Amino acid sequence: MAKVITIAQQKGGAGKTSLAAHLAAYWASNNKGIPKNGAISEDPKQRTITLVDLDPQGSLSTWYETREERGVDNDSLVLRKGAGWKVNAEIQTAQKNSDLIIIDSPPHSETSTRIGIRHADIVVVPLQLSPMDIWATRATMDLIKKERRPVLMVFNRVPARGRLATDLKDRLENEDLPIARSTLGNRTAYASSLMTGKGVTETEPSSLAATEIRDLAKEVLKRIR
Ligand SMILES: Nc1ncnc2c1ncn2[C@@H]1O[C@H](COP(=O)(O)OP(=O)(O)O)[C@@H](O)[C@H]1O
Ligand SMILES: [Mg+2]
């Protein structure tokens, strides 16, 4: 059975779709940091990663289609779309045919988000370090708690320096919430690579952004191994 990584966060613009695409692009083409326990094929050519786009806005699907149009090697990546209860069947089929499933959810706690969370081996919750984003995260965390799924919060668009960011991060850590060691900076590379249907690890492999994605990818896999 494929491991399922669900990216959820009620707040729009938190970075769900970006995270889904960059992680997928990395895992579709890379060998490093893949646990050698047979859960995920070591050879990227043998690996199948299914992207499930639950957001009716379809930005992850558009990224995927851009990738195909531009002829980026897409053999390891499969896309499925869906909404509502149909999603259950989509995910179950994908579980039989993939190594990994990455689910991108819509910005509201709809039925499909709940189902995405229910299937998750880990729920990744991106959030920006602003009070509004932290408040909005509560509803998502409640939903995850109800479904009793493991969660990993990831700070996104972290400014290079700033007291507010440090204060908020300290406060959340004190609340004993599972926060990823890896954080993602506020970097234009994240958006520009997606425009071309790629991920930063493909377009700018030696950039800081790519390092951040590789670190996070390893951290996520470690938690579901
Ligand atoms: N780390 C980052 N640095 C710079 N821009 C980012 C970063 N993460 C996301 N963005 C930008 O923020 C916007 C919202 O991101 P998106 O992934 O669509 O969020 P969501 O799917 O949660 O609504 C997009 O324009 C995206 O390019
Ligand atoms: Mg999105």
Description:
The chain is α/β, with parallel strands linked by helices. The chain has one domain: Rossmann fold, CATH 3.40.50. The chain is built from nine helices and six strands. The protein has helices at residues 16-29, 59-69, 86-97, 111-118, 131-146, 163-174, 188-195, 200-203, 208-224; strands spanning 3-7, 49-53, 77-81, 100-104, 122-128, 151-156. A six-stranded parallel beta sheet has the order 3-2-4-1-5-6, sandwiched between helices. Helix 2 (59-69) links the parallel strand 2 and strand 3 (77-81). The radius of gyration is 16 Å and the shape is globular. Residues 9, 12-18, 59, 107, 156-157, 184, 186-187, 190-191 line the site of adenosine-5'-diphosphate.
Helical/strand content category: alpha/beta
Stretches where pLDDT falls below 50 for ≥5 residues?
Answer: none
List the ions, cofactors and other small molecules found in this model: adenosine-5'-diphosphate, magnesium ion
Classify the oligomer.
Answer: single chain
The CATH architecture:
3-Layer(aba) Sandwich
Q: What sort of overall outline do the alpha carbons produce when their principal axes are compared?
A: globular
Quick overview:
This protein is an alpha/beta fold and 225 residues long. Helices cover 45% and strands 15% of the residues. It has a single domain, classed as P-loop containing nucleotide triphosphate hydrolases (Rossmann fold, 3-Layer(aba) Sandwich), CATH 3.40.50.300.
